[in-house]
Amino acid sequence: MNAIQQTNFNFPGQTAFYKGKVRDVYTIKDKYLVMVVSDRISAFDVVLPEPIPYKGQVLNQIAAQFLKATSDIVPNWVVSVPDPSVTIGKMCEPFKVEMVIRGYLAGHAWREYSAGKRTVCGVSLPEGLKENDILPEPIITPTTKASVGHDEDISREDILARGIVSEEDYKQLEQYTRSLFARGTQMAAERGLILVDTKYEFGKADGQIYLIDEIHTPDSSRYFYSEGYAERQASGEPQKQLSKEFVRKWLIENGFQGKDGQEVPLMTEEIVQSISDRYIELYEQITGEAFVKGDNSSVLSRVENSVKNALTNL
């Protein structure tokens, strides 16, 4: 199966290259970023050995659709989407915090709560909540953006006290975060989904704040299915999720959680294909559209040609 595992392009005007866990980012003329969303997949902070065909396309196209649908709320970094797996955008100076917002008590927030904590990132939570309960109102639980290692929880007060973001900018980031989450919640509801929690990243260019990176994808967000949510909560059953949680579950069942001495289980063709199929299913559920596979017969040539053509128009 032809998938994008790694890239090594040399584009006209290229001034830098950065390889992230799943994305390869090329800087052009110190002004634009070419973000190639590869088919690499990570879990437990580990990049798994086999790429997942069409995963990059799924994430890139979901993000492109949501960025377009929220551009009336906040300007975003996108200049063009010249290829199913590529976004070209304005280069911004990223804020060193990720704006995480939660409408339900799930994931990391639930783990903190169940360990007895009633304050997450400086936000107080009421007693008596169960896992996956709706919160009285959405809460913002920021994290620091670590260049190495894990991101860490941080409170609004600490962000301002340490001068990580100015008070004026931070107020604007909070306002954008709440408005984006409200729009994402509304769009999810139209698809029979609940947007549980998500994260947004912002940057600045020429004094203007921009929404950057990806939004509302199954890699950056957690979704529940609306149908049956209340019944499952009432009976204490796990919620039906739409996220890459199924990959983590498969790894855990096969003895891997990214800890020292553990080996990634064998990723057979069948496993790779099943993960690819699930990502396509995620795309169709989130967008309400049929997924159209890009031509992967020579995927790297396709990507390279698409980008070079787009750069001539910048």
Question: Which key phrases capture this entry?
Answer:
314 residues; alpha+beta; D-amino Acid Aminotransferase, Chain A, domain 1; five-stranded antiparallel β-sheet; 8 helices; 17 strands; globular
Could you explain the architecture of this structure?
The chain is α+β, with helices and mostly antiparallel strands and 314 residues long. It has a domain at 94-242: ATP-grasp fold, B domain (D-amino Acid Aminotransferase, Chain A, domain 1). It is built from eight helices and 17 strands. The protein has helices spanning 55-69, 107-114, 156-161, 167-190, 229-235, 245-253, 269-287, 299-311; strands at 14-19, 23-28, 32-37, 42-43, 46-47, 78-83, 86-90, 93-94, 97-104, 119-120, 123-124, 134-140, 143-144, 193-205, 208-212, 221-225, 241-242. Strands 8, 9, 12, 13, 14, 15, 16 and 17 form an eight-stranded antiparallel sheet that branches. Strands 1-2-3-7-6 form a five-stranded antiparallel sheet. β2 (23-28) and β3 (32-37) form a beta hairpin. It is globular, with a radius of gyration of 20 Å. The two termini are 33 Å apart. The mean pLDDT is 94.
